[in-house]
Structure prediction request, 143 residues.
Amino acid sequence: MNFIENISFVGEIKSNPEEVKKGVANYFEKQYKNVPWCRPKVNGLPLKKLSETERDSLEELFSPDVVWTTLSSCDGNKVPGLDGFNLNFIKKNWNVIMVDFMKFLEDFHQNGDSVKDLNRTFIALIPKCVKPDFMKDFRLICL
Prediction:
């Protein structure tokens, strides 16, 4: 099965492809919506303040040494990234990819929006049963 013929949303059966598409999108928007909550207050807690030098260092560009030290301290066998390479690939090929990797970090530092593309994903809905009628009858897989 590579399409959803029809599906029930809040008791209403949808079969029009555009309605199904909108219904699926609305379902997942509700599932993963940020729910507002009250943040804990820190009034009266003896918190240390950053010095001016420490504060300024938060806005400095990343140096290759700092990036390499950080990468080296991470376990490289964790889940691969979107491109299928895990952190071991980056560590083993650091000398080859360092310039491009640092350019990516510099672009992020200056623009802050290059990360949007890293958070995009395709969703595949895998049926859990022979004839899925509701969204709960599908397993979500992110590609």
Notes: The CA atoms of residues 39 and 45 lie 15 Å apart. Residues 1-22+61-143 form one domain. The mean pLDDT is 84.
